[in-house]
Amino acid sequence: MPYVTLKQFEDSIPIGYSGLTRYDWNTCKWTGIDRIVRYRMYNTDIVTIDKSKGIITLDNGGWATATTKVKINQIIKHLLAFYACIYQEKGIWYYTYKTPKSLQCLTSINISFFNGMKLDFTGKVLNPSKGSKVLNKKARLIKLIDKYCDKLKSLKTLPLPGTGDCWYCSMFEQAGSKDNAHLLKHLKEKYVHGSLIMAALKARGYNDPGMIFHLGAQPKGSMRGPIIQAVKVYFKTRLGIAR
User: Fold this and answer.
1) How many Cβ atoms are within 10 Å of 61's Cβ, its own excluded?
2) What angle do helix axes 209-216 and 194-204 make, rounded to 10 degrees?
3) For 213, phi and psi rounded to 5 degrees?
4) Is 183 helix (H, G, I), strand (E, B) or coil?
5) Which residues lie below 8 Å from residue 209, measured CB to CB, with a gap of 6+?
6) How far apart, in whole angstroms, are the C-alpha atoms of residue 229 and residue 97?
7) Chain-centre distance for alpha carbon 2
8) What's the predicted TM-score (pTM) here?
9) For residue 226, which of 51, 167, 217, 236 sits 20 to 30 Å off, Cα-Cα?
10) Tens-digit pLDDT profile for residues 110-163
11) In 3-state terms, what secondary structure has residue 167?
12) Is the dihedral of CA 64, 65, 68, 69 positive or negative?
């Protein structure tokens, strides 16, 4: 991931900010005209602190990566009265915190993470009901992705990219579109096409995705496994699921 300069942070922050300081190589701390303190990682305020209301808000900006998770954990560690952290299990983020059950012991509480999660300064989640809805949605998406990849694995030959493919996958994906509605539709219909596979390989960082595609086109091709993995990661990244 690229180093972010203070000038780049300045350009991404609304006018009227104050107290811009570097937290580390990809994160800064700044205060808005509303006197709310924010920790910004690249272009996302991952931790927001409203001291007047006693509320801390968490947000990964759709980037459920290990780097984002570690950064949020580093920040909240120094803000909360009791132990709290985000951890990952089977592709889903969970927030856990310890709260005093009595004067002698602490009890752990685990809630599925969601963007906009609000905490008080003891680590207690103030809007926990949304967590179960997010958990159910992500669990369904993971099952759909697994079934899609099973179909991809079973194909005798991979479909070549063509003019009949999904228009969004073949055109707008190359321009950096973040519209995910068509991807959800592909998952539900198990619609496998060449343009989506090529988009996944490019997103994975292959210098020559066409060659990788060719080497994995046949069922026993040497790159069929990496292609399946690239498609799985592509769906998870676009749909905000931890990889």
Assistant:
1) 15
2) 120
3) -60, -45
4) helix
5) 198, 201, 202
6) 33
7) 18
8) 0.78
9) 167
10) 899 999 999 999 898 999 988 888 888 889 999 999 999 999 999 999 999 998
11) helix
12) positive
